[in-house]
């Protein structure tokens, strides 16, 4: 066949498959509507068809069976309807783009070459015998992602199948029309990838199903590791691969795992909205998404409010001049470290021996059960029992004590008083209750009357007295109501003073050492102690204390677990501490973990290196159950941007750029006049817009700088500018000012680093912040500085960028130049 014949053939096949799809749709539509109507009808007439007659046991039994039968029919219809709707949706999804790839595979020992067309779901011919389209998650489809032409094999549940790939073809199909096709030889056609990557940024992430790369496919299909760690360069497709992996696992384990048994921890709520369309695009339901902070807030309850990690970050970046800053930084570092985790484990032992602090139970200004009584009771339990078991015993004891006290209080004066405040409803309740008991009373009365046969019945003796019963019930209600909160507090372990238990760790160095089996304290310990206790006294927790606090709480009360969750995904995994991983492991004991991150973007102080030999992550489930995959190829940015950004990172030379070309990054020195600086940015934004770039981010180091930049740029007349803050929930296209730590994980057509001067990014710590900011750019990257460039920019080879030093007149020249317009 000539090439044009080949194309014609593919066009005809496409038309044929689309026709089959259309026919199926035409068949399904009336059925879908019909079944829905039938189910609705049955539901409506459900009770009409059932006559309930309970006069005899047989009648009752009959009614029971009719109801059962009706509800079974209804459930079946509804299940049938759901299945049809699923099929209908899947055919609908396939119609505009039935498949994106084809692979011709000849199995060893079989004289037949199968043409395998791959799309987002499977579709067979009318007889159900031939696959017109294979779901991309079927075993045979992995050939498409893993092999170029030549010998190839793939894994099936029945074992490995060997053979050879004779053709690998990619299609560009839009609205059912074949726009292009490429035969790929080596890797999956760079042509299609080029095409996909050259497109503009979106306000929502896209699925990469048609162009998944081999190393990404390994992540997606790994189904053995308990812990899968992915260390991948910026833009290497970690998040994309993670979402494809979710879709794969939901497909592979569709009988046993549902979407609500998977959780994804994402860096912030805005990121959650950014990725929320990928799974529905692949025909799967979204899984649960949360941030670690949401978990902390939930478990800590309302008693203590933990600081937001973004506020912690803002403090670290902006509070350098404040008293106690160095101590706080040391505290953040130490409280996230494995050393502190170890210290807390030892503290747990000590607590079990002597350290628990109890809170007495008070009631109406009386100490019902004192903390000393609790302590005495607690120490009567066998020390061989675990701490949570002994606390449970104490809880049981307290509930019993409360029950006895409740009984004793029935005739206390305060109850008498409370009775006066009861309203009509309370009396009515009691009356109803007594009325229900009436037959019993009547029998009792008759009995009493018979006993006194012949005698005048004496109602005061032996007979039931309603009034007395009523008062007793009312009293009981009053006391019960008053004791309810006490019981609830006991059930919620409020009799342990966790806050005091955590606080006693931070008394002084000697006490700390004694209680943690000699842990070595970090520098500034006294100040760290003071700061921690200050916060606790305001019922607040530093972010770095939140997870350790929960950890201590659980040492005492026992671990909270969620056994429903089967897969946990942690994106931006470098930003979690050893502590947080330990916590996640405990919380989800039946789950497999996938952690994706990039140590090059580790901008939080509690960062964890994912790929290091001594990484706490490897230790979590042990080396045998852990697999590490590295992604080195970056897909997001142009070659010029990747070459520029990777040179900022030590070891960055191993990052591989994808061959997509555009301008070199631009370095613009704006001079010391602030308004001129902003004018340059405004002018560049206009030009980028004119070139057709729709998503442009002006990235600052901090939220405070974002606010300032936003105001200044607006003053320069920049219109439709958005300010992104930690409260922003939705990610939209357009031009925005955003602090770097909120831009994590997302991407823009063009990135303008608002101020890349030495004053902003001068310390070693700033290197990764600047790297993270620059790597958000897909097509264009501009950096601005008034005077001196950041040392991380200065260190770059000059052939990696273009320098601009043109002049630019501020747009709003009306305001005269003030001294504050000049840089310090
Ligand atoms: N195989 C692929 N085919 C097409 N596009 C891809 C592929 N892999 C990644 N991309 C694209 O590259 C960009 C970066 O992907 P993604 O955000 O998943 O990377 P990441 O490693 O999570 O990045 P970062 O760590 O910098 O946030 C996205 O636009 C994504 O669509």
Explain the overall architecture:
- With 824 residues, the chain is an alpha/beta fold.
- Helix content is 46%, strand content 16%.
- The protein contains 29 helices and 26 strands.
- Strands 1, 2, 3, 4, 5, 6 and 7 form a seven-stranded mixed β-sheet that branches. The protein has a seven-stranded parallel β-sheet with strand order 22-23-21-24-25-20-26, with helices on both faces.
- Helix 5 crosses helix 6 and helix 11 packs across helix 21.
- The chain is globular and about 100 Å long.
- 36% of the residues are buried.
- Bound molecules: adenosine-5'-triphosphate (ATP).
- The site of adenosine-5'-triphosphate has 23 residues, from helix 4 and helix 6.
Provide the CATH top-level class of the domain at 660-821: Alpha Beta
CATH topology of the domain at 660-821: Rossmann fold
In one word, what is the shape? Answer: globular
Radius of gyration from the alpha-carbon trace, in angstroms: 35 Å
Strand content: 15-25%
Give unreliable regions as ranges.
454-463, 813-824
The end-to-end span amounts to 73 Å
Which molecules are bound besides the chains?
adenosine-5'-triphosphate
Give the mean pLDDT.
87
Number of E-type strands: 26
Q: What is the helical fraction, as a range of percent?
A: 40-55%
The number of helical runs is 29
CATH architecture of the domain at 660-821: 3-Layer(aba) Sandwich
């Amino acid at each position: 066949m000539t090439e044009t014949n080949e194309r014609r053939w593919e066009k005809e096949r496409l038309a044929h498959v689309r026709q089959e799809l259309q026919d199926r749709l035409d068949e399904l539509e009336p059925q879908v509507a019909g079944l829905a109507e039938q189910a609705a009808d049955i539901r409506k007439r459900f009770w009409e068809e059932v006559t309930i007659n309970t006069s005899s046991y047989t009648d009752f039994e009959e009614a029971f069976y009719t109801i059962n039968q009706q509800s079974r029919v209804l459930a079946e219809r509804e299940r049938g309807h759901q299945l049809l709707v699923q099929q209908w949706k899947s055919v609908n999804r396939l119609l505009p783009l039935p498949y994106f790839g084809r692979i011709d595979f000849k199995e060893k020992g079989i004289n037949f070459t199968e043409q395998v067309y791959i799309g987002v779901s499977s579709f067979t011919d009318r007889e159900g015998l031939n696959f017109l389209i294979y779901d991309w998650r079927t075993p045979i489809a992995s050939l498409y992602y893993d092999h170029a032409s030549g010998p190839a094999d793939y894994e099936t549940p029945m074992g490995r199948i060997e053979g050879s790939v004779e053709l690998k073809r990619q299609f560009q199909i839009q609205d059912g029309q074949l726009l292009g096709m490429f035969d790929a030889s080596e890797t999956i056609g760079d042509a299609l990838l080029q095409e996909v990557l050259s497109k503009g940024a979106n306000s929502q992430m896209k699925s990469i199903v048609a162009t998944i790369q081999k190393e990404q496919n390994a992540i997606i299909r790994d189904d053995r590791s308990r812990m899968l760690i992915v260390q991948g360069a910026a833009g290497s497709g970690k998040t994309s691969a993670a979402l494809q992996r979710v879709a794969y696992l939901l497909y592979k384990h569709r009988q046993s795992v549902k979407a609500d048994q998977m959780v994804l921890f994402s860096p912030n709520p805005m990121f959650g909205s950014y990725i929320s369309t990928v799974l529905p695009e692949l025909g799967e339901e979204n899984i649960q998404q949360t941030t670690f902070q949401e978990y902390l807030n939930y478990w800590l309850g309302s008693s203590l409010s933990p600081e937001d990690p973004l506020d912690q970050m803002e403090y670290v970046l902006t509070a350098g001049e404040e008293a106690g800053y160095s101590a706080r930084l040391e505290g953040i570092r130490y409280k996230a470290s494995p050393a502190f985790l170890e210290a807390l484990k030892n503290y747990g032992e000590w607590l079990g021996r002597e350290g628990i602090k109890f809170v007495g139970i008070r009631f109406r200004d009386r100490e019902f059960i004192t903390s000393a009584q609790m302590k005495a009771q607690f120490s009567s339990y066998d020390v061989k029992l675990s701490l949570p078991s002994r606390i449970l015993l104490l809880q049981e004891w307290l509930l019993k004590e409360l029950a006895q006290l409740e009984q004793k209080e029935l005739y206390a004066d305060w109850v008498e008083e409370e009775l006066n405040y009861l309203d009509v409803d309370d009396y009515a309740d009691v009356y109803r209750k007594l009325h229900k008991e009436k037959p019993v009373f009547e029998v009792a009365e008759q009995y009493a009357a018979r006993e006194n046969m012949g005698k005048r019945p004496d109602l005061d003796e032996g007979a039931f007295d309603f009034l007395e019963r009523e008062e007793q019930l009312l009293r009981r209600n009053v006391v019960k109501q008053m004791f309810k909160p006490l019981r609830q507090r006991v059930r919620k372990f409020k009799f342990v003073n966790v806050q005091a238990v955590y606080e006693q760790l931070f008394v002084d160095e000697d006490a700390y050492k004694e209680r943690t089996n000699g842990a070595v304290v970090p520098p500034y310990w006294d100040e760290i102690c003071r700061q921690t206790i200050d916060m606790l006294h305001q019922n607040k927790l530093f972010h770095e204390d939140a997870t350790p606090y929960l950890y201590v709480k659980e040492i005492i009360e026992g671990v909270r677990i969620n056994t429903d969750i089967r897969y946990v995904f942690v994106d931006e995994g470098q930003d979690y501490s050893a502590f947080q991983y330990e916590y996640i492991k405990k919380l989800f004991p039946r789950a497999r973990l996938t952690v994706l991150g990039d140590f090059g973007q580790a901008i939080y102080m509690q960062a964890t290196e994912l790929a290091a030999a001594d990484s706490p992550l490897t230790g979590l489930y042990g080396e045998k159950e852990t697999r590490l995959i590295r992604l080195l190829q970056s897909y997001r940015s142009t070659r010029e941007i990747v070459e520029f950004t990777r040179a900022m990172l030590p070891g960055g030379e191993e990052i591989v750029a994808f061959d997509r070309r555009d301008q070199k990054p631009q370095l613009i020195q704006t001079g010391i006049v602030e308004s001129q600086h902003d004018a340059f940015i405004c002018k560049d934004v206009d030009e980028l817009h004119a070139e057709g770039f729709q998503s442009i981010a002006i990235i600052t180091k901090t939220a405070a700088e974002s606010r300032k930049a936003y105001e200044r740029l607006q003053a320069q007349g920049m219109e439709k500018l958005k300010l992104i803050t930690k409260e922003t929930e939705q990610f939209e296209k357009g031009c925005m000012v955003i602090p770097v730590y909120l831009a994590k994980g997302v991407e823009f057509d063009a990135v303008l680093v608002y101020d890349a001067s030495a004053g902003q990014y001068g310390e070693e710590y700033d290197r990764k912040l600047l790297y993270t900011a620059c790597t958000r750019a897909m097509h264009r990257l501009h950096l601005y500085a008034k005077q001196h460039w950041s040392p991380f920019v200065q260190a770059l080879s000059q052939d990696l960028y273009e320098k601009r030093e043109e002049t630019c007149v501020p747009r709003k020249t009306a305001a005269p130049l003030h001294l504050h317009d000049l840089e310090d």
